[in-house]
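Example (one chain per record):
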Amino acid sequence: MASGIINLPPGFCFSPTDEQLVLNFLYSKDSLPCYSNIIPDLHMSLSDPWELNGKALRSGDEYYFFTKVKENKTTENGYWNEIGVNEPIISATDKKVGIKKYLVFYLGEGPRGTETRWVMQEYHICPYVFKTQSYDLSGSKWVLCKVYERKKFQFQKGANYCYSDEDDSGTELSWQDEVFLSLDDDLEEIKSIP
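Predicted structure:
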């Protein structure tokens, strides 16, 4: 165990739902004096995403860690950029308990960096849900981050090129060709809908 990080033994998988991440980990971190310390605290500016192994809780190809809400998201080699996609996290009782924001890692200096396959889901608490508690979460200091590397391009608004690890023919396509092929596949799928 390096620097207090818990590494899961073979066969164990840390696979919580979004609701569990917010209610059982992030809420506990923000409001309880003693909380389960399975997920470590990290300064995002000190590690590029490919350097998270041994620093964050790893489960499969995903890395989990806490960081401060206002943490600097610029590293030595790049920066994390929000892509403008926010999803509400709804509890089993149909209450909004959190928000999940998506960020992508770019190499180089902003705003003209090169997009990578590294994605971060940043979990935030909805403070108004917990206002009946004796803790004030309107000034929540922590976010919980889940980082992973995309294996295949996921077409998103604003994206301008594709990645694919599945084509192992040895032939590389330009990013424009990959976008056109992806759009052709999307159009064929849409046309096939009855």
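Caption: The first helix runs from residue 18 to 31.
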